[in-house]
């Protein structure tokens, strides 16, 4: 079994995750990166909320993720939703 990404340095984990995605989905990014980022941030907020329900101190994490999500949505709106929307 491969090592869990959470145990790797962040940049190594990012590279491994990207590599896995390229192996699974091919070399070309499909979709709109800001729309995908928004969905991932929504998932992350849900995970942080669940962690809080399980007793982990993640309330400030959820708040930070929400601010990031708001920034991404503002960038997306200002850009006129340009890009690949498949």
Concise synopsis of the structure shown:
This protein is mainly alpha-helical.
The secondary-structure class comes to mainly alpha
Portion of residues in beta strands equals under 5%
Question: Approximately how much helix is present in the residues?
Answer: 55-70%
Distance between the termini: 33 Å
Q: Which segments are poorly predicted (pLDDT under 50) over 5 or more consecutive residues?
A: none
H-E string: HHH
Q: How many DSSP H or I helices?
A: 3
Let me know the number of strands: 0
How many structural domains in the coordinates?
2
Q: Profile the largest sheet.
A: none
Name the average pLDDT: 92
Mass-distribution shape: flat
Radius of gyration: 15 Å
Structural commentary:
This protein is mainly alpha-helical. The chain folds into two domains: 1-30, no CATH class; 31-86, no CATH class. Helix content is 66%, strand content 0%. It contains three helices and no strands. It has helices at 10-25, 33-53, 59-78. The longest helix is centred in the middle third of the chain and has 21 residues, at 33-53. It is flat, with a radius of gyration of 15 Å. The model has no long low-confidence stretch (mean pLDDT 92).
């Amino acid at each position: 079994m491969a090592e869990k990404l959470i145990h790797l340095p962040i940049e190594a984990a990012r590279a491994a995750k990207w590599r896995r995605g390229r192996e699974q989905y091919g070399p070309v990014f499909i979709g709109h990166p800001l729309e995908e980022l928004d969905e991932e941030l929504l998932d992350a907020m849900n995970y942080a909320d669940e962690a809080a329900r399980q007793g982990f101190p993640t309330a400030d994490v959820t708040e930070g993720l929400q601010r990031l999500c708001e920034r991404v949505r503002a960038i997306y709106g200002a850009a006129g939703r340009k890009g690949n929307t498949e």
